[in-house]
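User: Hi! I'm working on a homework problem where we have to compare a predicted structure to a textbook description. Could you give me the structure for the chain below?
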Amino acid sequence: MNHPDFLIIGGGIIGISIAREIKRRFASAQVVVLEKERALGLHSSGRNSGVLHAGFYYTADSLKARFTREGNRSLTSFCEQHGLPLNRCGKLVVARTAADLPQLDELLRRARLNGVPMEDLSAEEARKIEPRVKTFERALFSPTTSTADPLRVLEAMRQEAEIEGVRLVFGQDFQALPGGAVRTDKGSLSPGYIINAAGLHADTIARQFGFSEHYRIVPFKGLYLYGDEPAGSFRTNIYPVPDLRNPFLGVHFTLTVDGRAKIGPTAIPAFWREQYQGMENFDLADCASTLARELGLLLFAGFDFRRLAVEELLKYNRRYLVHLAGKLATQVRPANYTRWGRPGIRAQLMDVRTRKLEMDFVLQGDARSFHVLNAVSPGWTCSFPFAAHVCDQVAAMWNPR
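Assistant: Happy to help. Predicted structure tokens:
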């Protein structure tokens, strides 16, 4: 184990998907996944919405467009093959005012360019799918959007990875790279090739290999409010038309695999990378550097980060969050939404030269190492085809020892 052919840093769904794909391509290779926590799913992969996105939000020339469409199919098939719960509820994208209609048209155009099924509906037709929906004149319906249970999917992938010969090592945190060896808090390893899929910490690790020079992670906290209405009170996910200038989709209704509704998520700027609850995982140096980056966005961002930050902070107020959701559906009452779910942290990459948030996947590497710097939403949906793409890049650079 101390001299694996491939070492993958990070045991989230991206890291495990890459490890499995490497093992499929190089059957005799020793593949080790290094996970700093003692269990899977304690960060983004276990805290995401569970939505299998369809792939209509993204421009046709983006990696996200290609991988989301393919990932939706492959992850849906994985759930079916393993008997994992899957809610094929679809998604309505609604217009709140006439000003949203041009963006609705743009989403429809992108869906068609990306080869993603999408239905253009009147408001009356939308209400046949979801009687409680509110929309101005029209709505779009995505029939291939569904929801799954992220933790159960991740656990099924872990089991398959181990059967396939991937070694998962828990409770070891990457600390440094001295002279070609990887040092952890439990010892050292000398891998032939390193793949960095460390999510929130990917940029920090990449810099030790000479990468991520112009990129830094900016963390955003996502919170959901869970509803107490009976399962089936909503029939489908309901999303607003998003502001396509930033990577967030706005407050929406998401159905869980058991048919219950939750509203959110927030996209609140976090003060350090793992700021889940209170002062948990507080890191003074990380806090200082994160605040400096966020200050730079406040002053110089190419989008209105100040307005976004204020709006997101307001969503800590439960009644305000319910009020926003109430613009999308009827009979949405604060009394029915009282339970906050587990917070998640979005590892959003920023280009420090332009002070812009990266909207697509960002990858860097050489013959020694490869780094997944930006694999934000819909990274969970994209995990299978994205892993294949990463392995294509690695295979072109890797020099077997």
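For your comparison, note the following. The radius of gyration is 21 Å. The mean pLDDT is 93. Good luck with the assignment!
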